[in-house]
Every structure is written in structure tokens, then in C-alpha cells.
Design goal:
The complex is a heterodimer of chains A (114) and B (108). Chain A has 114 residues and is mainly beta. Chain A is built from no helices and 11 strands. In chain A, strands 2, 4, 5, 6, 9, 10 and 11 form a 7-stranded mixed β-sheet that branches. In chain A, strands 1-3-8-7 form a 4-stranded antiparallel β-sheet, with no helix packed on it. Chain A starts with a strand and ends with a strand. Chain B is 0% helix and 59% strand. In chain B, strands 2, 4, 5, 9, 10 and 11 form a 6-stranded mixed β-sheet that branches. Chain B has a 5-stranded antiparallel β-sheet with strand order 1-3-8-7-6, with no helix packed on it. Chain B is globular, with a radius of gyration of 13 Å. The chains are: A mainly beta (114), B mainly beta (108). At the A-B interface, strand 4, strand 5, strand 9 and strand 10 of A face strand 4, strand 5 and strand 9 of B.
């Protein structure tokens, strides 16, 4: 199994809603990542988890809250988002953080904030 | 100036043509990745390389560490190769630095 699975694929939420994005991998990877991608732009790193601990937070606003409940799962909790947060949110995993290893990406969650 | 520069930004070609996409970087790296992104979002890892050359099917990736340059070649291009190709460098700091991407369109 070489897949990173993200759910949901599409999400529309209001600015007062609370929602969560989910990411799952069963490759035994110990590093997991959240990226945000706006249209026609490259992905921007948001968070890195290494061995289930948050190792990088790229100054992301607190309305985005990551969680890594176990080595296979990564969540991104969303609360009080703004319309400019509408984007494609990509999850990725790799064998180890800090060592060159192939990155596996999910299909992404396309988020629209209304 | 971006740390990772790709050229061209857009490329349109006819089916069967040989395609080259270039990537230059200005930082020290531990590896370089070539990624493919189709409309609809998902990103697929094509290659990870730190030296020399790799080949997979019709795709070839090369890297010259001294010149800080990498190329992705597609032989016998096909409309299904139409996608955005992204070069990303791994500086060994748990994060990738991405180029702006090359939008490739192959016409039948």
C-alpha cells in the first residue's frame, strides 16, 4: 500500500464552522506533512510531524490546528476560517523527516470557505 | 530571486516531441525531487535524485550537483503527460523548497 488517503475530497464551510481534514497512510512512514496550495502556485508547507510530534510550524494562524493521534493518522482541525483560506490542502508522508526520502502525497482536500 | 527556478513556465508541444524541463537551484541540497500534478490536485512523485541520472519508462531525470541544475526529459510525449511538473529541493531540514512549476500541454 503506497497511498496517502485524504478525506474529504471537497469541503465547503462557513466562517463560523468547525471542521477537520483527515489524512492516513499505512506505509510505516514516520514523517507527515500538511501543505496549502493556492491556484497556480506551488505548495506551501504548514506543519511537519516527526514521530508523532510537531517539529515544524511555519507560522500558521491558530485557526488551523494539527493533530497526530498515531503514526498513521494526521488531522487538521479548522475553526473560524476566512475566505482567503480557500485552497487545496495536501497531506504528504515520507520515511523519515530530515533525511532524503521520497515524498508521497495525497489527492488533497479542496476547501472553500464561504 | 527564488531559491528554485524552473524553465519554461509554460510549454506546449505536439504529441511525440521530446520534452525538456529545467530546474536550477541556489542552495545546498541533499536531494532533488521531480513531482507531477494533474488538474484536480494530487501530486505524484516521479523521481528523487542526489546524483547522476534516473530513468523510468519515458521519463529521464538528470542532476549536476556542481552546476546546481537538473533536467526532466520526456521522450515520445503523449497528451496524458499534460500536467504541471514541479521541481523541489530537499535541504535536509524536514522541508522541501518548491519551484513555481512548469505547465506542460501536449496536443494530439
Amino acid at each position: 500500500d503506497t497511498e496517502v488517503t485524504q478525506t474529504p475530497k471537497h469541503l465547503v464551510m462557513g466562517m463560523t464552522n468547525k471542521k477537520s481534514l483527515k489524512c492516513e497512510q499505512h506505509m510505516g512512514h514516520r514523517a507527515m506533512y500538511w501543505y496549502k496550495q493556492k491556484a497556480k502556485k506551488p505548495p506551501e508547507l504548514m506543519f511537519v510531524y516527526s514521530y508523532e510530534k510537531l517539529s515544524i510550524n511555519e507560522s500558521v494562524p491558530s485557526r488551523f490546528s494539527p493533530e497526530c493521534p498515531n503514526s498513521s493518522l494526521l488531522n487538521l482541525h479548522l475553526h473560524a476560517l476566512q475566505p482567503e483560506d480557500s485552497a487545496l490542502y495536501l497531506c504528504a508522508s515520507s520515511q523519515e523527516a530530515g533525511y532524503p526520502s521520497e515524498a508521497f502525497f495525497g489527492q488533497g482536500t479542496r476547501l472553500t470557505v464561504v | 530571486k527564488n531559491e528554485v527556478e524552473q524553465s519554461p513556465q509554460n510549454l506546449t508541444a505536439q504529441e511525440g516531441e521530446f520534452i525538456t524541463i529545467n530546474c536550477s537551484y541556489s542552495v545546498g541540497i541533499s536531494a532533488l525531487h521531480w513531482l507531477q500534478q494533474h488538474p484536480g490536485g494530487g501530486i505524484v512523485s516521479l523521481f528523487m535524485l542526489s546524483s547522476g541520472k534516473k530513468k523510468h519508462g519515458r521519463l529521464i531525470a538528470t542532476i549536476n550537483i556542481q552546476e546546481k541544475h537538473s533536467s526532466l526529459h520526456i521522450t515520445a510525449s503523449h497528451p496524458r503527460d499534460s500536467a504541471v511538473y514541479i521541481c523541489a529541493v530537499d535541504q535536509g531540514a524536514q522541508k522541501l523548497v518548491f519551484g513555481q512549476g512548469t505547465r506542460l500541454t501536449i496536443n494530439p
